[in-house]
Design a protein that fits this description.
35% of the residues lie in helices and 29% in strands. It has five helices and seven strands; from the N terminus they run H-H-E-E-H-E-E-E-E-E-H-H. Helix 2 packs across helix 3.
């Protein structure tokens, strides 16, 4: 188990480094050539290290100070890894249809990854985080139980909800 645990920590280190730099080669070290990646900002999975590197580069433009840090030890079961992470950064450029807000986001996320049969790369990586919370932090959606949220619900035809 000791060697497996070291290998998993090395893979997670490489994944974190890949998110920190602009090189597709960094994703090539950690992601299998036919591996795929998904996160809540994508419409479907990306296949291959190059496409993931392009997505990461767009995220680094939108969040140039992006910090991607692990929180706690990974959980391992067979060929699956689960790792809690914290994503922090300041929104400095357009992302999708959302113009720069210059607001900070601080999100807790979970990475679920499958190890390739070779055991040296990841075959599939999926990151989960709360898109609603991200939109609230960026000011795209109103804070829960705020007057703005009540007004938005009223405009959408739900009436004026009562605050508890």
């Amino acid at each position: 188990m000791e060697g497996t645990e070291e290998r998993i920590l090395t893979l997670l280190d490489a994944f974190e480094v890949a998110w920190s730099g602009p090189s597709a080669l960094a994703f090539g070290v950690v992601l299998a050539p036919d591996g795929h990646y998904e996160d809540p900002l994508l419409r479907g999975p990306l296949r291959g290290p190059e496409r993931v590197a392009q997505h990461a580069a767009r995220m680094r433009v939108a969040f140039p100070d992006l910090v991607f840090e692990r929180s706690g030890p990974p959980m391992v079961g067979g060929s699956l890894i689960s790792q809690g992470v914290r994503l922090r950064g300041t929104h400095r450029a357009e992302i999708g249809n959302v113009p720069s807000t210059d607001k900070e986001v601080d999100l807790h996320a979970v990475i679920v990854a499958g190890i390739a049969t070779s055991g040296v790369r990841l075959a599939r990586v999926r990151i989960f985080f709360d898109r609603y919370d991200a939109a609230v932090q960026l000011g795209v959606l109103p804070r829960p139980r705020s007057i703005a949220e009540r007004a938005l619900l009223a405009l959408r035809g739900f009436g004026l909800p009562r605050l508890p």
